[in-house]
Amino acid sequence: MGLVLRAHRPGLVRYPERRLCGRRLLHRRLRHARRSARTGGRSRPQGSSQIDKPARLLLLFLDGVGIGEDHADINPFARARSSLPTFLQLMGGSLPTLGNAHTSGPRGRVIPLDATLDMDGLPQSGTGQTALLTGEDAADLHGRHFGPWVPVALRPLVEQHSVLQRALDAGRSAAFANAYPRSWPGSSRRSRFIAALPLAAKAAGLLDRHEEALGEGRAVSSEIVNDGWRTHLGHDWLPEISPQEAGANLAAISGDHDLTLYAHYATDDAGHSQSMDDAVAALQRVDAFLEGLLEQMASDTLLLVTSDHGNIEDVRAGHTRNPALGIASGPGEEHAQEMSDLRHVTPFVLRALGIE
Ligand SMILES: [Zn+2]
């Protein structure tokens, strides 16, 4: 299963993986990654061509959003489509479904991303986000899907080989737009539970936006609005902001950097709640955020929305094996169609920025 070559990038060195234990395999992967970073050495996906270069790229991560059935009883996109105008615009004007996943229109196109990583079982955030951020086959390296945190043995891969670090290594500017408490991740037992995106940002020196930045609109809360920071983290002085205002703040941050990463997790939480009302509310919040973002985002920015696995698109259960939702909007978006798998995202981002 893990040795199936389908969907792997041509040119990626294939190791006799099953004969290596996990630690040795990881070390080989890291060595190869470092060598590849030095030589700029990756081949392009088959059929790829020169990308119309966007001036910058905004990678907007939504946890647990897949492409589901066109069924209003189970899919909140189908239930609430009339109240998700910005999503619909970005997705080409119609709802992508399992039967018709590649929707496109003047403002964007849907890129369905296989999240199964050629592995049985339900995709999980730890391995899925690691694959997204590094281009490597995290489930195969770990031996199974794992989440929601990054497996400890895969942390060096995320820390040393993330798309953020590789953009910086190539001399580009990069930002992680999320606000985090200064104390994160701390030293308590809970601090061992680390998600891939802040882990990559911290290792790249980009976990540098805290409550002051949030108060000044130079950061965005992971939940989009500031309510949690105000009520749970003791910063009641922070302004209450609308999702649209948060989107405008993200647009301003992305305007200052070649690559900006932002992560939102509440969509996965809403999927786990198995409540249609919660799922619809979570998508409506993201829709309003996208509305504010698009109003202010520079037209030479390529917006790439990606998820790590399905969940919210089917409120009957938790994670699904449905394709993860990808959306591309902006200069070079047509080349995003070369992606069909979580592992293709990082190579695509680097090529779009002219790095590899
Ligand atoms: Zn989940």
Question: Which features does this protein show?
Answer:
single chain, 356 residues, alpha/beta, Alkaline Phosphatase, subunit A, seven-stranded mixed beta sheet, 14 helices, 7 strands, globular, disordered N terminus, binds zinc ion
Please write out the topology.
Elements: H1 22-39, E1 56-62, H2 76-79, H3 85-90, E2 104-105, E3 108-110, H4 125-134, H5 138-142, H6 155-161, H7 163-169, E4 174-176, H8 196-203, H9 211-215, H10 227-231, H11 243-255, E5 259-264, H12 266-273, H13 276-296, E6 301-307, E7 326-329, H14 345-352
Parallel strand pairs: 1-5, 1-6, 4-5
Antiparallel strand pairs: 2-3, 3-7, 6-7
Helix pairs in contact: 1-6, 6-8, 11-13, 12-13
The structure holds zinc ion (ZN).
Zinc ion binds next to helix 12.
Describe the structure.
Strands 2-3-7-6-1-5-4 form a seven-stranded mixed beta sheet, with helices on both faces. A hairpin with a 2-residue loop joins strand 2 and strand 3 (about 110). Mean pLDDT is about 90; it is low at about 1-20 and about 35-50. The chain has a single domain (about 55-350), classed as Alkaline Phosphatase, subunit A (3-Layer(aba) Sandwich). The chain has helices at about 20-40, 75-80, 85-90, 125-135, 140, 155-160, 165-170, 195-205, 210-215, 225-230, 245-255, 265-275, 275-295, 345-350, and strands at about 55-60, 105, 110, 175, 260-265, 300-305, 325-330. It has 14 helices and seven strands. The chain is about 35% helix and about 10% strand. By secondary structure, the chain is α/β, with parallel strands linked by helices. The site of zinc ion has 7 residues, from helix 12.
